[in-house]
């Protein structure tokens, strides 16, 4: 008996699931029926009627009211009569876009009652469908600008919410509600603008009829604007993900605290369980999960940021494909697909006898009427020989099968740069030896620069160190004069250090094969970098 009862329970459960599935399917069908008037033959008249209803709030309109308003618009519905308009309204009621009004009708005559008894008002679903339709009609093909500045505001808002949630005593519910509402409005606007822009970009790059001017404009758009968007999102995404990780442990308590402070229309669902309530964005945990999935990888699915990078890469590939097509067109290798389709249509409509003549005229192909042997490869054919009687010409496989005249063959071998590398290493070694010799020459000539003549490499190294030392110096002024403090420069690789200090009234002459340099009121000394620095007392 227990087995039978359990079987009956399973059957009842399956029936409930089936009934629930049928009910959900019927509800979805009813909701989708609200779009039916947009595909009806009289769609322009239906749209004009729905726009009149969307221009009012909590208003019920009768047929005479609608006729008067449609006549003012002077649109597609202005020519409707009362009988036709009534049929249109009844269809909209059947599709769920309009509702019959339940307001009490007060009439002073039977004629007035007959005119006013049928009143209609807008349903929530119908208003949503018409609003979306107007948005599509207003900017379906327009390039929408991405509101990238909102991403910085989302970053800032999440940082403030995280700080409020982690503060002692918790967040103030009113301030938290304001921050969350603002955050989700900004994020929704940013995400919607990204989707619209990339949909437009994909539509444009899918075209194969771009001319050079259009291609240039879209190339600049893709390389500059899209790159800026991707870089901004890549920069902000890790910071936003970190703020979300900080908020996540405090999120249940934060949402409960906000609900206790401002229940809003959510209390309606508690009193009427059969009523569905759509909370404002950010009040439910599902909204936060959607925000988190946009910036982080959750559940094995890639984030929207990763998908944005992939979409940018695909856009670049499409741009490259268009560039190749334009290059082939410029070199005379443009696809003949359109011509071949026209020729195929001619073949399809031709009679058998006409088809043979068409093939001969189009391709110059004739049936074989003779057998022959291969011609002599060394035989030269004069220019006046007709192709009809001349030898057979060998057609390359690439040209015969793909129509490509680009020569193909084995890939080129990788170039060997070992000799160049050895030459560069030897050149670098010689330069290092020359600088080391110049450093040794400066150390040996220190203190007697006016008595020796330096070589050109030594003079260049001395001037390099002197310029660095004067740049490192600090100027100190007193009542009568000024001093240089810390005028030193060192090269650890060469093991050399230069020290300079000011000596009023003394001039120093540096001689070299390239010329002489006179330094007024300055003394220079060169010593080893590992030894103590030469001070002014050693001058």
What report would you give on this structure?
Helix 7 (149-166) runs antiparallel to helix 8 (173-205), helix 7 runs parallel beside helix 9 (212-247) and helix 17 packs across helix 18 (456-472). The chain has a three-stranded antiparallel sheet with strand order 1-3-2. The protein has a three-stranded antiparallel sheet with strand order 6-7-8. It has 539 residues and is mostly helical. Helices cover 57% and strands 10% of the residues. The chain folds into four domains: 2-139, Winged helix-like DNA-binding domain superfamily/Winged helix DNA-binding domain (Arc Repressor Mutant, subunit A), CATH 1.10.10.10; 149-327, no CATH class; 335-364, no CATH class; 446-538, no CATH class. The N and C termini lie far apart (117 Å). Strand 6 (488-491) and strand 7 form a beta hairpin.
Précis, in short:
This is TIGR02677 family protein. This protein has 18 helices and eight strands. The protein has 539 residues and is mainly alpha-helical.
Number of domains: 4
- How much of the sequence lies in strands comes to 5-15%
* String of helices and strands: HHEHHEHEHHHHHHHHHHHHHEEEEE
Q: Quick one: overall form?
A: flat
SS class? mainly alpha
The description of the largest β-sheet is: 3 strands, antiparallel
Helix fraction, binned, reads 55-70%
Protein name: TIGR02677 family protein
Coiled coil: 411-445
InterPro entries: CHP02677
Organism: Streptomyces viridochromogenes (strain DSM 40736 / JCM 4977 / BCRC 1201 / Tue 494)
């Amino acid at each position: 008996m227990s087995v039978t009862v359990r079987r009956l329970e399973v059957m009842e459960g399956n029936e409930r699931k089936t009934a629930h599935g049928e009910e959900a399917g019927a509800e979805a069908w009813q909701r989708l029926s609200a779009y039916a008037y947009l595909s009806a033959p009289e769609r322009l008249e239906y749209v004009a009627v729905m726009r009149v209803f969307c221009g009012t709030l909590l208003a019920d309109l009768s047929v005479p009211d609608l006729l008067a308003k449609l006549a003012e618009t002077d649109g597609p519905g202005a020519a409707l009569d009362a009988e036709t308009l009534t049929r249109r309204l009844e269809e909209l009621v059947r599709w769920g876009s309009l509702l019959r009004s339940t307001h009490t009708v007060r009439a002073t005559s039977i004629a007035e009652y007959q005119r006013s008894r049928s009143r209609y008002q807008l349903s929530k679903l119908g208003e949503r469908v018409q609003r979306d339709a107007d948005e599509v009609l207003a900017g379906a093909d327009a390039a929408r600008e991405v509101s990238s500045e909102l991403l910085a505001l989302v970053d800032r808002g999440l940082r403030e919410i995280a700080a409020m949630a982690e503060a002692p005593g918790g967040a103030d519910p009113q301030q938290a509600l304001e921050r969350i509402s603002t955050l989700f409005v900004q994020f929704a606007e940013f995400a919607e603008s990204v989707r619209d822009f990339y949909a437009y970009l994909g539509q444009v790059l899918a075209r194969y009829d771009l001319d050079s001017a259009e291609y240039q404009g879209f190339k600049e758009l893709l390389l500059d604007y899209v790159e800026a968007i991707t870089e901004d999102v890549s920069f902000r995404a890790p910071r936003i993900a970190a703020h979300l990780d900080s908020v996540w442990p405090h999120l249940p308590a934060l949402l409960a605290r906000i609900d206790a402070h401002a229940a809003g229309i959510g209390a309606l669902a508690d009193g009427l369980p059969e009523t569905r309530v759509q909370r404002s964005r950010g009040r439910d945990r599902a909204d936060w999960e959607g925000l988190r999935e946009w910036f982080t990888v959750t559940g094995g699915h890639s984030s929207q940021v990763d998908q944005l990078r992939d979409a940018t890469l695909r856009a670049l590939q499409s741009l490259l494909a268009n560039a190749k097509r334009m290059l082939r067109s410029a070199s005379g290798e443009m696809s003949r697909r359109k011509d071949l389709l026209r020729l195929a249509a001619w073949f399809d409509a031709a009679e058998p006898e006409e088809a043979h003549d068409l093939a001969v005229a189009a391709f110059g192909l004739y049936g074989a009427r003779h057998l022959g042997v291969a011609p002599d490869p060394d035989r030269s054919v004069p220019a006046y020989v007709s192709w009809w009687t001349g030898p057979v010409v060998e057609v390359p496989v690439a040209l015969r099968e793909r129509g490509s005249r680009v020569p193909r063959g084995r890939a080129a071998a990788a170039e060997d740069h070992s000799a160049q590398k050895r030459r560069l290493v030897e050149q670098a070694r010689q330069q290092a030896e020359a600088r080391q010799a110049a450093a040794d020459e400066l150390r040996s000539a220190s203190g007697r620069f006016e008595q020796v003549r330096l070589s050109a490499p030594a003079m260049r190294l001395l001037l390099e160190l002197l310029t660095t030392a004067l740049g490192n110096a600090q100027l100190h002024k007193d009542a009568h004069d000024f001093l240089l403090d810390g005028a030193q420069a060192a090269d650890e690789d060469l093991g050399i250090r230069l020290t300079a200090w000011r000596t009023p009234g003394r001039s120093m002459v540096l001689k070299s094969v390239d010329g002489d340099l006179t330094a007024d009121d300055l003394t220079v000394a060169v010593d080893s970098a590992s030894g103590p620095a030469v001070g002014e007392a050693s001058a």
